[in-house]
Amino acid sequence: MNAEDICSPTGIRLEETGYGYTLAMISGKYKMIILYWLAQYKPVLRFNELQRRIGTISYKTLSSTLKELERDGLVIRKEYPQIPPKVEYSLSERGRSLIPVIDMMCDWGERHRDGGATPQG
User: Fold this and answer.
1) What span, in angstroms and rounded, lies between the C-alpha atoms of 58 and 97?
2) Pairing of strands 75-80, 45-46
3) 49 exposed, middle or buried (CB, 10 Å; 0-12, 13-18, 19+)?
4) What is the reported pTM?
5) Which residues, in sequence order, are bridge partners of residue 76?
6) Overall domain count for the chain
7) What is the pLDDT of residues 14-46, one digit of tens each?
8) Residue 3: inside a domain
9) In CATH, what number is assigned to the domain containing residue 92?
């Protein structure tokens, strides 16, 4: 069985394929950005650190996106019982398994963002 048979079999809805499942996990304006920050810069980030690094995200959007990532098992939320509350976010093992995908997307973007194409050989 080749990748085409697995990712786009005939007669099956996209969301029922591995490709569709992966898209559902990472789709959204900020999910990939949050995963990128958690993967590339620090193993653990607090909410306000993430918000500062992203810059263009509202409190509400960041909060709901982190909840989705946590629900999907990609991010771990650790809350410390203190005042003021301290909450840290990190990638789960499942979230770390997406890093090669993010890296490949970054590499592809670097090669093609100026309209250049890599010659096929």
Assistant:
1) 27
2) unpaired
3) middle
4) 0.78
5) 90
6) 1
7) 777 888 888 888 888 899 999 989 988 778 999
8) no
9) 1.10.10.10
